[in-house]
Hints:
Blueprint: H1 2-7, E1 8-12, H2 15-20, H3 29-44, E2 49-55, E3 62-74, H4 78-84, E4 96-107, H5 116-129, E5 139-145, H6 148-156, E6 160-161, H7 166-173, E7 183-189, H8 191-196
Parallel strand pairs: 4-5
Antiparallel strand pairs: 1-2, 2-3, 3-4, 5-7, 6-7
Amino acid sequence: MGFLQDQCSFGFYTHEKADSCKPFRCGDDDLDEFFTHDAFLQSDELLCKNYCFTLDDDPSVIVAAFTLSNDSIKKIPGSRKKKVEKNIPREKQYSSYPAVMIGRLGISVDFQSQHLGSDVLSFIKAWFVDPLNKTGCRFLLVDSYNKERNLAFYERNGFNYLFSTEEQEREFRGIKPERPLNSRLMYFDLIELIKKK
């Protein structure tokens, strides 16, 4: 996390913060629209919390932004359930498991191709296994754009598909076969970080 840790400050991404900074652009119309408007609407409704990293040398420059919200993994069918529960002792298995959803993650166009997206994910992972974390959280979830580049990014960062095939995911979500599957659910088991210590 070198650059983010050494040259950036971490804090809330609020409407006031955005107004005091240069426009934050990721180069994706949907993400740009979200971080310009929807992030604040969702935060006001307590649906997510928004965070960002700004440059220490110029606090008006937002390097990265992301959102988090509470979630869970539950009602998982068949083989997916076994995969998710493989590292959970049998006597501790539940019908649902606490998780945090990374709703959106964006890197400024001026800082892309420097692996900062992976650094942000590493930061979030470390944050939720920190002993001072206020709540239990076993998994990180993402609902990634169903595009090869996005999916490969999360795979490189240790995320697995919650459903092996798009057909399984469509069925679970109630999406008709003729409709496109615009995103894929992926998860990261935070216990993997604890085992490495």
